[in-house]
Amino acid sequence: MKKLSLITFGVIAFFAVVAFSTSKKTTSNEPLKIVIDAGHGGKDLGTTDESILEKNITLKLLQKIKKLHNTKDFELIFTRENDEFISLEERVKIANKNNADFVISLHVNASNNKNDNGIEAYTKTNNTEQKTISFVSSLVTELSFNNSPLQKTEMRKANFKILRDSKAPAVLLELGFISNPQNKAYITSEKGQEEVAEAILKSLKKMK
């Protein structure tokens, strides 16, 4: 991913405190509709490192999220559940057609610098929704409890289609660098994937 405008995690944490203390949580009994988008798929491999394919990691993360989901506070909607190609237009259409309350697009990263590591969280360029910052801060906090190698976090703004055209607040998560040995070992392991999935679900619960 190209480097765009950067917010340090310290700023994320500050705004998260403000957001959690001032933002209005829904009081409706209706469950929140959360769209989980497993990036890439089918002919679109995503980033690769030897035999490691981004499309497979994102699908496994989605499957872990689906398996561990055990609350009626929110309904999960998936853009894909198999190794199939789904266009960016169709992904956005799924989110908007279902009147999503929040969209999470799952990805992993790669870099020529093997020292690059951690999470990159992207939001739309004109984003003013504190819900997204709160979610990312909570996610990193949850992962820190497990001494995850994904604790370093950068929050950036981008004009990606899933962010730009989704009517709901949306975040694109680059969940580690498969070019970094520690990140790759973690995000391709059953333990790492379950911890990330659990952290995402716990962070979503805080939105209700």
From TrEMBL:
SUPFAM superfamilies, A to Z: Zn-dependent exopeptidases
Signal peptide: 1-19
Full protein name: N-acetylmuramoyl-L-alanine amidase
GO function terms (MF aspect): N-acetylmuramoyl-L-alanine amidase activity
Domain of life according to the entry: Bacteria
Keyword annotations of the record: Hydrolase, Signal
Catalyzed reactions per annotation: Hydrolyzes the link between N-acetylmuramoyl residues and L-amino acid residues in certain cell-wall glycopeptides
Provenance organism: Mesonia maritima
MurNAc-LAA domain ranges (all copies): 92-205
InterPro entries referenced in this protein's UniProt entry, alphabetically: MurNAc-LAA_cat (IPR002508), N-acetylmuramoyl_amidase_3 (IPR050695)
Enzyme class: hydrolase
UniProt EC number: 3.5.1.28
